[in-house]
Amino acid sequence: MTESDHDQFAEALSSERANLTGQVYEQLIDILIRGELRPGDVIVERRMADRLNASRTPIREALGRLEAEGLVYKQPGRGVTVSPFSTEAFVELLHVRQLLESEAARLAAGRIPPARIEEIRAALQELGNKPAPSLSEIWEIDDMLHGEIADAAGNALLAGMIRDLRRRTHVFNAYRNPSKYKFGVEENAVLLDAISSGDQEMARKAMAHHIESVKLAIIDRLAGGAR
Q1: pTM of full prediction above 0.70
Q2: Which of 85, 94, 129, 221 sits at 20 to 30 Å (Cα–Cα) from 215?
Q3: pLDDT at position 177
């Protein structure tokens, strides 16, 4: 094997390993979002590897990513544990989301194709017609709208940061009275209208108002759950 062949082989192995780690990471995030792992639960690498039909190396690397994001932490003598998530941390997260997503909305105004706008609008309406949509159904449509806005902003770094923060929001909601979670279909439709209008300031304000409403509603829900 020539040096060039060796380098190509090593690069292919590295790419495959990164793909496996990414797949395991997304599966672990999905488990957290569904609330199948709760704060304080210990994640045993061997058992998780068996569950996900993966080797322990991508499991370990994916857990390292989750640790960097603050969703799990290493506890001496116990291994990797699902992190607690305080209301204060959640409010801080929403503050940052409000800043980033408002700017993304401003940049995305008028940049989403009309056909895609109508596709999202139809999905919102379909969700609104369901008497009791599941959390996974709500999150799918929510991510469709907010993900499209983030991508249309034209800044890959900004879009990635928004997705990471939104993922943490979903995980937090899975921990806290998920049956009481409500999705504002009409409010999201207003946001979509502002984006499609092409008016950057209108889009920015609509997103800021939207996330502020979400923050206040969740804080109120948490306070009610504590009573």
Answers
A1: yes
A2: 129
A3: 54
